[in-house]
Amino acid sequence: VMALQVQYRGFDVGFDLGYFGMFQPANQVWPGAEPIFNGLEWTLGVTFLFEILVRMLAARCHFWCDPWNIMDLFVVVAWAVDTATSASLPVDPMLLRLLRLIKLFRLLRLIRKVKGFDSLYIMVTSIKASFSALLWSTVLLFAVLATIALVLTTLVDVYLNNDSNPLERRLRVFEYYGTFTRCSLTLLELTLANWVPASRVLTEDVSEFYTIFVLTFQASMGFSVVKVIMGVFLQNTFSVAANDDVIMMNSKDRANQTHKMKMSILFSAADINGDGRLDSEEFADILADPMVSRWLSAMGFDASIMCP
After folding, report:
1. In this structure, what are the phi and psi dihedrals at residue 69, rounded to the nearest 5 degrees?
2. C or N: which end of the chain has fewer Cβ atoms within 10 Å?
3. How many angstroms separate the CA atoms of 76 and 181, rounded?
4. Mind listing the pLDDT tens digit for each residue in 139-160?
C-alpha cells in the first residue's frame, strides 16, 4: 500500500515539474485512488493503534523495555496527530510509517530454523562475518582513491586555468575532475562503474598521455584490488558455509531425507507382489539387475556381497 501511495505522489511531482511523459495529475492517472488510499490508511492506522493498546495491556511495564514497542508507539502517535488534527509534523508521516518496515529484518532470525532458507542464511551470516573485512577494504579503497584524486585534480587544474583551451572542453573536464569531490566520485566510477566516458574526457580533452594513467589505474585498482576484495568476501562465504553448525545439520538432514526417498523407491520397485513386504527372493531379483547394482554402488553399497 505504501509503495502505491509513493507511486501516486510521484505522478503529481512529475506533473508539477513538467517531466516528459507526465501529462496528467495523479487523480487523472489513477481515478478514485485517493479515497481508497485514505480508507486503507484509516483502516491500517486504527489496526496498529489497537495492536499497540493490546500490547500495552498485555505487557504492562515490560512494554517500555522493548525499543521496538517504543518505535511503534511513536509512529502510531504521529499518524494520529497528523490525521486527526491540522497540525503539521516536521517529518513526512510516510517516512515515519516506513520505520515499521525495519521490523521485517527481525524475521532474519527465523531463517536459521527453516531448512529451505539455507542460501539466504549463508548470505546473511557471511555479511555479518565479513563486516570487519568490509570496513577495512572500504578504508583502504577510499584512502587510495583520495590520494590519487588529490594528484589528478592538481594536474588537471593546469589545463582548466589555461584560457587558450576551449571553454566547452574545460567545462566538460571540470564536470569530472574540477574539484576533489568530483574527482573522487569519478575515480570511484572508474573503479566500479562505467569507466569509459570519464576516461574519454581525460584522454580526448586534456591529453592523450593520460591513456597510460587510465590503463594503469584499470589494471591495478579496477581489476587487481577489486578482485582481491571480492576474493576475501568469497573466502568468508565458503568458510561460513563449511563451518556453520546450522548449515551442516540442515545439509545432513536433507541428505538423509534424499536417501530415504531413494530407498523407498527401490523397495517399491522390488516389491513385485505388492504386499508391502520385501522377502529375500524379491530382494535378490532386484539386486540381479545390473543397473540397480551400479546405482547402489554409486551410493556406497556393495551389492555383490548380497548375491549368492
Report:
1. -65, -40
2. C
3. 41
4. 888 899 999 999 999 999 989 9
